[in-house]
Structure prediction request, 466 residues.
Amino acid sequence: MGVWGPVEGWRNTTRIVRQEIRDGHRSVLSDPRQFAQTQDMEPIMQDFSAVRQRDEELYDLLVAERERQRDGIELIPSENYVSPAILEAMGSVLTNKYSEGYPGKRYYGGQEYIDKIENLARRRAKALFGAEHVNVQCYSGSPANTAVMFGLLDYGDTIMGMKLDQGGHLTHGLHVNYSGKSYNVVSYGVRKETGRIDMDEVRGLALEHRPKLIISGATAYPRQFDFEAFKSIADEVGAVPMADISHISGLIVGGVHPSPLPFTDVVTTTTHKTLRGPRSAIIMCHKKYAKDIDRAVFPGLQGGPHDHITAAKALTFKEAMQPEFKDYAGQIVANAKALAEALLEHGFDLVSGGTDNHLVLVDLTNKGIIGKDAETALDKAGLTANKNTVPFDTRSPFSPSGIRIGTPAATTRGMKEPEMKRIADWINAAIDNHGNDEKLSSIHDEVRELCAGFPVPGISTTEHNR
Ligand SMILES: Cc1ncc(COP(=O)(O)O)c(C=O)c1O
Prediction:
């Protein structure tokens, strides 16, 4: 199978990592032809046997979660399945090491290999995204965004980001977040009639409030970002343009969403969403901001980097450089469009009428169900999605009117358009029968049957709960 995602892909990576080790860390991965030839290794399966010997209680919980992931379809747009090789790197002996500082300038000894691993991750991230400078030490997306603000702004400065209840992230200026508490926040949103960002409104707000930082990027926006327009507005008002591409970085490197690099001065991304790496983040920036941002990450906000995660990030960037990753990214979007179309046929009201990326945002008002109840019904049917506000929601963020549904994880399992159509049918049936546990359970049986044909990387299809 050509698409990077199903089991062949994981076999490749596992084999390659082992070969790299045998070759004394010479990089076979730098030659995509060799990468494509390595097809014969079984993926590593998570059997938790060592945990079982030490801690039965935890073992039972790990097994239960493993089976939940195997027997249901993951539709939360910010989740994905990493390769067994990435799992292996994350679970490696690198977790034993402390390495405060940066390569060549550490506060602890024994950094011979850690420096090389961090430099490898930096080099690959720069090549993958076309970045001038990268910091690969950020623990996760929220600290990465915080570090940018901490490094480049003074308390009380004005920042501009997308409203949380219209698709933005809480670190883009929500009043209860560090960003909202420390800075003066101006927020832009979407146009009510179109569900799309109105760049005239963004420009008008920027001209009126003269922010020091303008953030583009979102957590629940189904359309593409016009990063060039954001850059030109930032230039016009003398702001630093920052793009948070956490959700779409896999689509960007896969060539199915325009990139904000190299023209956007600061770009942050998590590595665990469409990029399909470990739970973490990186910051990329123009050289002139490198020192301030590095200092903000360490010693400003963090202590020792998580070296096992840095190693997994290095591998993630390598995986994303493979030609198959482009197929994967393209299929994520094709699947989201197929899912959107099928949901529209069932009479669902989609914010902006559809999608250009990996997610759809469904306003359930016309279906007479709230997001929370839909989420619960879908859970019972083996379909994991999350309740979400929709633009101009009349309900609260704790009990919003919508749900957010995404395709990155299902696409990793190898699911395509025909499976998206079945998923839409199940979503429709689950919502129509949300009070009927028997029906929801019978949908889950059908979901489980489909899942058996689409293995989750690293999870055996045959092992069962004790
Ligand atoms: C756009 C965006 N930025 C930042 C984050 C924060 O990432 P993390 O949960 O790793 O802190 C998220 C997480 O959902 C996100 O969607």
